[in-house]
Fold this protein.
Amino acid sequence: MKKIIVLAVVALMGTAVTVNAQKIGHINTNDLLVAMPETKKAQDRLKNSQDSLNVVYAQLIKEYQEKDSIIRVDSVKWSPAIKQIRFKEFQDLADAVQQYSTSAQQFLQQKEQEFFAPVQKIALDAIQSVAKANGYAYVVSRDALLVVPTTDDLLPLVKKFLKIPETPAK
């Protein structure tokens, strides 16, 4: 009789644990972002910004190289006062090139954040909607896990939610 009671209690506890178990899903957000058409648009916008900055940078480099060539060839003919002025101009140009490079990098980082933040928000909102609709209490990043069951991968569901066509495996 004791064994039956113990087995009944164990069975009830197992049922209670099963009822309280919460679904945990996972997703590779990088794969999702790569598949999103909004990502391609953001990348194109960032590339356009980078290309326009590169045009100005190339002009500065060309001017720097021209001045460098002039200094190398003509500086032996210059008086000490002219040399001092020309070398100062050359150093100022070198500083301007360096400052432009630093400013351009900062600008591109800001633009990258500006262009990709809405894409990341769309992805996060979609993940949350799919998780809620499918009863997932937790969704973790696939990158953080070493072993995962394939049945809890939310990537196909989120792609379907965002109407992103499935691409065949390569």
